[in-house]
Amino acid sequence: MSSSEELKLLVIFSLLAAANLMVLFLILFFKKSNNQSNKVLGLLVFIPSIVLVMNPLFYLQYFSEYLVFIFIGLSSTFLFGPLLLLYIHLVQDNKYQFKTKDLFHFFPVFFVIFYGIYISLQPNEINYKNYLQIASGEDLMINIINIAQLIHFAIYITWSIKKVNLIKTKTYLSIVDKTNYKWLKFFVTRLLYLNILILLIYVVQMSFFPSYVIYSDLLATPLASSCFYPIMVYKSFANKMAYDTDVFNKKEIKSKEVQLSESTFIVKEEEQDEELNSDKILSFLQENKTYLNKDYTIHQLGVDLNESSRTVSKVINSELNKSFIQLINEFRVEEAIILLKSEKDKLTIDAIAEKAGFKSRSSFYRVFKNIKQTSPSQYIQ
């Protein structure tokens, strides 16, 4: 196989890997019912796709007259660290507001782009000479930028690992907090392994096979990226599905209701109506706080009150003019308000929702807004 044919195959392989990552980016960034963390993860996938496009175009000498594109590609890698920190922040359902000091994270990006513009404004003869130096690996500034990239990844991945480990120091961890911790730890550690692997590939190649750098750029890096990022995207969706459930699963409740009804003793309905009233129901819920059980049903309340669920439902509907679910959610919201006021600095929104009896943050927000006409965060301000 001739060297030109080999180059074409390597270029095609790198571009296919870039297309693979681009598809993942589009899915993450533009999917329906999206959230900010998915969009940021999409950008994290988009950055290596830029590199996988730039490398083959560089070897095909498309940038010999437009050096600025080389530096735009190099600058994009310096976005990875800030976006990684932002992703970790958003996965924990924290709100983000841009501050002036955050511009510090983007200083390397601006510097590399401006330097690339400056180089590109030189005469064509000097530009071509600079291109030959870059292609031969003798350009001082490019080598400095490459070293800065290694330092950048080392700093931000270490920083990210520390931020993830801080999750464990919270006073109370909800199921969502624990799930997020496991996912984020898995993600950042695998990201660390990936960068160590790519670094080792380049070290070995430069030490023993200096003339084969093309294989590192157009084969090893695309192959590693194509294996790593699709797995991470799949894991991120699996992590979300693990806890993003609504407050009541109808099939699950129906199954539990059947089991409970079979074990519940039968009492004459006429006698129950005489004994049970709304005061008794409210008093029981206030004293025992059984509504904190996220799977609590009207059948369980009937068992606790020594009444049939039909009778309990009838009393709640007729005397309180509401359904069982509305009643339980009102108690849960009041419990959440107490926690928001007393432990907002210690607990996350997910932890408060779970301790108040809600199955998910989304259901907590929806119910809270329906009852209080405002969101939990706005309520405590």
Please give a handful of descriptors for the protein shown:
381 residues; mainly alpha; Rhopdopsin 7-helix transmembrane proteins; Arc Repressor Mutant, subunit A; 2 domains; transmembrane
Structure description:
InterPro entries: Homeodomain-like_sf (IPR009057), HTH_AraC (IPR018060), HTH_AraC-typ_CS (IPR018062). Pfam families: HTH_18. GO terms for molecular function: DNA-binding transcription factor activity; sequence-specific DNA binding. The protein is mainly alpha-helical and about 375 residues long. The longest helix has about 35 residues, at about 175-210. The protein is built from 18 helices and no strands. It is elongated and about 95 Å long. The protein folds into 2 domains: about 5-245, Up-down Bundle (Rhopdopsin 7-helix transmembrane proteins), CATH 1.20.1070; about 250-380, Homeodomain-like (Arc Repressor Mutant, subunit A), CATH 1.10.10.
